[in-house]
Amino acid sequence: MRKRVFSGIKPSGELTLGNYLGALRRWVAMQDAYENYFCIVDLHAITEPQDPQELRRRTRDLVALYLAAGLDTAKSVIFVQSHVAAHSELAWLLNCFTPMGWLERMTQYKDKVAKGSGERISAGLFDYPALMAADILLYQAHLVPVGDDQRQHVELTRDVAMRFNHRFGDTFVLPDVLIGEAGARIMSLTDPTQKMSKSDVDPNGTIALLDPPDLVRRKLMRAKTDSGTEATFDPARPGITNLLEIYQTLAGETAERVEAHFAGRGYGDVKREVADRVIAALEPLQEGHRRYVDDPAELDRQLQQGRDRAAAVAEPTLRDVQEKIGLR
Ligand code: TRP
Fold it and tell me: Of all atoms in ligand 1, which is nearest to the CA of residue 145?
């Protein structure tokens, strides 16, 4: 029996090269080995303010990008979280079995509270990990491929599952986190000490997967680098290192070979070649995305099918939980 994988991305900003290399491309590479559930987590997106029109568009864009990137519905169930009501329902139930103290310890929540103004933080943001636990546990997922920033949420999911199983008997599979290699961590182009993030307010720091080629080139040519000249991997020079890592990831080469390739050449050459590689990598994604935008009925059909397949797994888990706690 193949192990189950669950992961998701929030439709809360334009998907970036970082999301592609760190998540999507990895999911595509591993989908043959597992039974996969890949979700667009719109209910997580609304834990922070979203424009309704934009949310709707980004959700559909994300579905199209999942498919364009090579996720194959023969191997992976692709669906939108809010289309399967069991996510909201189980999140409420798990709420009632999750101690406040566990949620208060979540670093992502604490960081957001520290950055934002207290009153505007929604109860949903505090409760975000219970919904994420519901996502994972509904499908009895064994593995959750995410970035390191999500490790704590998966650990909390495991703790909630363990606590529930202990009290009510075996109900949930205990999930393990699956962290990608360090090389896939792409940094901002304007501040290479920060991760490239789709919520970055500075559009020049990120490369969106749907950025046209001339814009991709412009952003990369202006990427922040230090005043050095040697194109080598060096933690003290994060800007050039980030560009070399993008190159390395796309070329699928070793660091030594990348350094040898650029030996004796300047930063400008690196930027030009990184731009060529990125543009080439985005081309099929943008082409695939365009196909689904031009054929909304096909996208709807895919979504309906994804919803049905996801619900067929999620609903029995929800019913089991409802029975165990005395709701039916
Ligand atoms: N919190 C995750 C992130 O920001 C997104 C997410 C929501 C998720 N539910 C999930 C990831 C379930 C893995 C499994 O990246």
Answer: 13
Same domain, 278 and 313: no
Residue 131 CA: which ligand 1 atom is closest? Answer: 9
Whether 3 is catalytic is no
Instruction: Name the band, by pLDDT with cuts 50, 70 and 90, for residue 63.
Output: very high
Indicate whether 258 and 314 sit together in one domain: no
Task: Domain of residue 95: give its range.
Answer: 4-179+296-325
Q: Is the pTM of this model over 0.90?
A: yes
Give CA separation, 254 vs 18, 197, 247, 248, in Å.
19, 25, 10, 7
On whether both 133 and 242 belong to a single domain, the answer is no
Q: For 265-323, how does the pLDDT look when each residue is reduced to its tens digit (9 = 90+)? A: 999 999 999 999 999 999 999 999 999 999 999 999 999 999 999 999 999 999 999 99
Residues near ligand 1 (Cβ within 6 A): 6-8, 10, 41, 44, 132, 135-136, 144, 146, 150, 153
- Given strand 176-179, what is the order of strands in its sheet? 76-80, 35-40, 4-9, 143-146, 176-179
Q: Are residues 42 and 135 in the same domain?
A: yes
Give residue 7 CA to ligand 1 midpoint distance, Å: 6
- State the total domains in the chain: 2
Cα 53 to ligand 1 centre (Å): 22
Q: Are residues 112 and 240 in the same domain?
A: no
Q: Domain holding 262: CATH number?
A: 1.10.240.10
Q: Is 324 a catalytic residue?
A: no
Same domain, yes or no: 35 and 96: yes
If you write DSSP's letter for every residue of 162-192 in order, what string do you get? HHHHHHHSS-SPPPEEEEPPGGG-PBPSS-T
112 is catalytic: yes
Count of beta carbons in the 10 Å neighbourhood of residue 173: 19
- 207 shares its domain with 69: no
Q: How far apart, in whole angstroms, are the C-alpha atoms of residue 222 and residue 209?
A: 18
User: Is 118's pLDDT higher than 90?
Assistant: no
- Same domain? For 150 and 228 the reply is no
